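Running this now, will post back.
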Amino acid sequence: MNAWEQALTRMEDDLDAHELTLRTGDVRDVMPFVAPEGLGPMPTHLADRVQSLIHRTRLLATFVQYELVATDADLRFERREVKHAGAQALYLDRAV
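Update: finished.
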């Protein structure tokens, strides 16, 4: 296995691990993938594999972005509920 194939395999393994943590809820810090130095030009026969990794990375990033927005909305809702938990109506408008 050449250096490019090893680097791509490592990236695939990292993506697999990140996807698993999102599915199981056991989320941990995600370390950025750093390609090894001195790889040289990418062999053309690996182009489809690289495109697949780019696609998977974008899907994962989109899913994480969605989860962050949803979590933020949940937290805002919880804060609002806690803030108004003991609130009482000051009057009752019976004219409506």
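The chain is about 60% helix and 0% strand. More later if anyone needs it.
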